């Protein structure tokens, strides 16, 4: 495990307010949202392939957008093709990956945070032998990245476990899935030894207790009045922790030079007031978010979650040797996503339900919001970086941060018959401003002494949204010409933010000091 002697090196990156020379600038996306080709190359169905397009306004609880029942899965399996199931087509990266990587190289990117579709390697999850065609697809992709000088940062499981493990095994509630994941981890670690230096085990592992299907492959069932519905989620989560520790051990055994990280959806909580009860509530909420990284970085469950389980009557079954496995196989670095901060109170009803903001109903009056209602809190990113560094003292990596917005495409495609050039453009100064405001705070955190490996913006290309499966909530610096129904050319069009991000990489962050009024190329 990587260690840092902070007594002799209070600023591990050697930073004095600027970004380190080896800083990994990049973009990020997940296989299930970008690849498409859901039934090609020997791939099996994944849990994401059965989530349909949904309209967020139809759901009171936004987390239910990403859930599934036995009936909805059966209907999806019986539905052929991609109509109604946008993740099956993604952004067509499966067929366009070479030219897409050329675009990433044009930006000068140092890293691409991506994932491997588990069901492309083991179509059913419990197959005895891997799918060679799937293995070869990623091998070619990694070789192309190496040619372009782009380091892959690869997530083993990013909301895309094989559907068979969901329907036949009960997802991560079944201990047997741990062994199947170990087989998968050993297969890819061995095959891509020397091609992948940075591995992540599970994406946003804390979502398993928020979105049990998406995070843990746990199907929604009829409520049992005698069973806490959180019981299955926490059991699934424990199995994921065990699998993550096993995968970390496997990677280190196969390739001692490789680094393994965990990945957390970091949602910091502010108290709604200076009332000590609100402060304690915010502390509790933060600790319940951070116990996930406690397990993977410190190697043990915190007292906060153990007390919570006792108080709530939740009994997580652990096998002999689990504690020792977790303690002996901690990660080398901590990666996380950051999109917003939240507000906690012992009496949230006093503040009124505002809706919209993910996982929170209390509006922070000091912050603006995105068009999807998410709090915009750039300074919160500096706070999070310092908080995580002080707590863990391991290298950090921001692997998701970006703005979802409705972009407007202007102009027309080229018309060779008329000699007309391609005039299509996307002007997105709001996205550039988002990057500037957040990255200035990242720079401040580095000056504070935080050891930060890199920053990969979500999501490079426009991709299918994780929650609603829509294309019109766009995160990319590269526009993908497709609508929510999959209509369009799927052409790639550089947005203004593409050119700005290129300057960001070329100048190693110095572009952050330019006037925002400066026009993009």
UniProtKB/TrEMBL annotation:
InterPro entries: GH, GH_1_N_CS, Glyco_hydro_1, Glyco_hydro_1_AS. PANTHER family: 6-PHOSPHO-BETA-GLUCOSIDASE ASCB-RELATED (PTHR10353:SF122), GLYCOSYL HYDROLASE (PTHR10353). The keyword Ligase does not apply. The lineage of its organism: Bacteria, Bacillati, Actinomycetota, Actinomycetes, Micrococcales. This is Glycoside hydrolase family 1 protein. SUPFAM superfamilies: (Trans)glycosidases. Signal peptide: none annotated. One of its GO terms (cellular component) is cytosol. Pfam families: Glyco_hydro_1. Keywords: Glycosidase, Hydrolase. The active site is at residue 400. GO terms for biological process: carbohydrate catabolic process. The keyword Hydrolase applies. Belongs to the glycosyl hydrolase 1 family.
